[in-house]
Amino acid sequence: MRKGIITLIALGALTVSGLSACGNDEESDDAKTPKIGVILPDSKSSARWETADRKYLEAAFKAAGVKYDIQNAQNDKQAFQTIADQMITSGVNVLMIANLDSGTGKAVLDKAKQQGVATIDYDRLTLGGSASYYVSFDNVAVGRLQGEGLVKCLADKGISTPTIAELNGSQTDNNATLFKSGYDSVLQPKYDSGEFIKGPDQWVPEWDNAQGSTIFEQMLTSDKNISGVLAANDGLGNAVISVLKKNQMNGRVPVTGQDATVQGLQNILLGDQCMTVYKAIEQEADAAAGLAIALAKGDKESTSQTVHDPTGDRDVPSILLTPKAIYADNVKDVIDDGYVTAAELCTGDITSKCAEAGIQ
Ligand code: BGC
User: What are the E-state strand segments in the chain?
Assistant: First the structure.
């Protein structure tokens, strides 16, 4: 049905240009230019969505000369659905989503598919969904780096038999589950052997940073021995650090993170955060845009990997990129990669820390 409309529009454009004396077929070209819709989840759970994903996806689409529409659902599931409907009506050939949860993500993907629109799960796999591809990082590896990072930072500080608090991401984000399975694969054996003590362990609804600090405040009240915190991303890490600061405990308790945000990197250089996980979003955006463009042109791309969706019991063709652990001594790598600029990072009291870290 939708394809039919496009053909009609294209034919109409051809007819018009055919009648014109110069035979200019610009309009038919325009009607044929692939259009890609992208829905990002929110702008608060991590700085990455608006500062990195949008920027790199836009650059990739511009470079390929395709039409695109990138919108942000601002953590509103209803708005997510409305944006998707509008994009489908506007004739996108491909819809790429980072879902807010698998249930609402699936509804969007299934509807798009029914209308002949190809779909890609971007960063977050929609369990039970119908996307043609999934592009992300190896999210279990992300979690493993966080677990190993926490172990290293505790050792560096000479903290023995630490009590660990775990502040997980949103339980409705499949990635949060994967991160947790990654860091628990490192931490659980240590809890089992008695080397580490398992403290409070909680999910943070919708990755909400404010709720994260309330939850951590309660954790600290209930267990004064907390001496290491596995925080699932930089936003939650910063929420933890703010509570530690109030209790004059910052810098003494290692805290992890993820996303290599400006704030996370600053917290690392100040000694308040132990590590973050850098995911080269430019690579992720390029890979996803490449697939989207191929799909929009009707090509089928093969991927070297698949990811098993246990809910839908299907293997989804996937591209999974490799994450990297960042500590104070290699913050410079993120700058050298162009992900964050020295000007963004090195402000106020961070300036001297940047110089020490060889960043200018
Ligand atoms: C992403 C993380 C991000 C988190 C919160 C996850 O799905 O992979 O990079 O920090 O969502 O937005």
Answer: 35-40, 67-72, 94-97, 118-122, 133-137, 163-168, 197-203, 226-231, 276-278, 305-309, 314-321, 324-326
Query: Measuring CA to CA, which residue among 339, 306, 301 is closest to residue 320?
Result: 306
Burial zone of 310 (CB within 10 Å; 0-12 exposed, 13-18 middle, 19+ buried): exposed
Query: Could you tell me the pTM of the whole model?
Result: 0.92
Domain range enclosing 60:
7-138+280-321
What is the per-residue pLDDT for 297?
A: 87
2 lies in some domain = no
Backbone angles phi, psi at 201, to 5 degrees: -145, 110
For residue 222, CA distances in Å to 48, 175, 199, 225, 252 come to: 32, 28, 10, 9, 19
Task: Write phi, then psi, for 141 (nearest 5 degrees).
Answer: -65, -35
Kind of pairing between the strands at 276-278 and 324-326? antiparallel
Nearest atom in ligand 1 to 235's CA:
10
Pocket test of ligand 1: the residue of 207, 211, 262, 277 to mutate, having most ligand atoms within 8 Å of its CB, is: 207
Q: Which residues line ligand 1 (CB under 6 A)?
A: 45-46, 48, 123-124, 169, 173, 175, 207, 233, 258-259
What total of structural domains would you count in the chain? 2
Asked if 211 and 351 sit in the same domain, the reply is yes
Q: Are residues 108 and 58 in the same domain?
A: yes
Taking a C-beta distance cutoff of 8 angstroms, is the pair 258, 232 a contact? Answer: yes
Would residue 124 count as lying in a domain?
yes
At 28 the pLDDT is 57
Ligand 1 centre from 38 Cα, in Å? Answer: 16
Pair (126, 229) in one structural domain:
no
At 299 the pLDDT is: 87
pLDDT value of residue 300: 84
pLDDT of residue 360: 84
Residue ranges of the chain with per-residue pLDDT less than 70: 1-29, 31
